[in-house]
Recover the amino acids of this structure.
């Protein structure tokens, strides 16, 4: 009986936070650009870092990830999109990577969810990338191997 009550409290507590529209947030601050590194994908197109650094990436913060992907597909085609990642020990979705060759690419962060229920995973334990890509961007990082070239997070 105690187990049933405990499980019920856990389930109700986790969904209560999501149901309240003001609490649909990722629970911690984003890491700074210096706390991470970018992993190379050899099967992607390579662009000079100067060319990738030139657009005004800050203009995409607050817009859906798909908007950024449409721009990249037109102006910087040949990327690969990674899975939806959790950040640190938090088992909630927060980031998707966009890979180019030579260790260059973007980390795109989301903190507030309007389309994806961050508490609901697919049967394999991952999150629905299609729904995640509809979310508005909270922060963008551009990486050149281990160097963060751009960080929109203040």
């Amino acid at each position: 009986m105690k187990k049933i009550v405990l499980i019920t409290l856990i389930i109700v507590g986790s969904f209560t936070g999501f149901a309240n529209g003001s609490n649909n947030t990722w629970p911690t601050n984003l890491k700074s650009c210096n706390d991470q590194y970018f992993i190379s994908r050899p099967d992607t197109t390579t662009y000079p870092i100067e060319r990738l650094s030139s657009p005004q990436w800050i203009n995409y913060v607050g817009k859906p990830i798909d908007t950024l992907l449409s721009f990249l597909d037109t102006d910087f085609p040949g990327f690969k999109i990674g899975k939806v990642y959790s950040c640190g020990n938090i088992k909630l979705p927060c980031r998707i990577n966009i890979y180019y060759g030579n260790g260059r690419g973007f980390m795109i962060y989301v903190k507030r969810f309007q389309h994806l229920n961050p508490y609901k995973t697919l049967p394999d334990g991952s999150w629905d990338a299609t729904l995640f890509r509809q979310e508005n961007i909270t922060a963008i990082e551009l990486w050149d191997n281990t160097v963060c070239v751009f960080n929109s997070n203040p």
Summary: The beta strands are 80-86, 93-99, 104-109, 139-144, 147-151. The longest helix spans residues 2-19.
